[in-house]
# Entry
Amino acid sequence: MAYRKNIDTYHAETDPHIQIQFATLLEKNDLVIGISLSGHTKDTFDSLKEAKKSCAKILTISNDLSSPISQLGDACLQTAVGEFANIGSVSGQVSQLYLCDVLARGYAKKAHIDSQKITERALKAVMGKSI
# Structure
């Protein structure tokens, strides 16, 4: 689950216990992005349900638009065609990663963020760790 807490703060959290805590602190101007291959993951569902109680906006990314998680979304994006038995498929995972990349690039462009400059700065830091 990723969320936006005001215009300058962004956070992605994978721990479901922390997710639900963050969800209780959200407000109506916050955005939560819930990602689930199947759309039936209980931890993600519980966190998004709590975020909804906090009046946060919810964007879901799932392989199943009729899933419980998608039903919580104010906006829902579908990735690879969903079959519950195929939830761990590489195609589903790659399609969700691709969609996240598209969203991040679109946001960077709209917000006039020089992502190339940020990437170069990060790469220099990583390269400095070589021995």
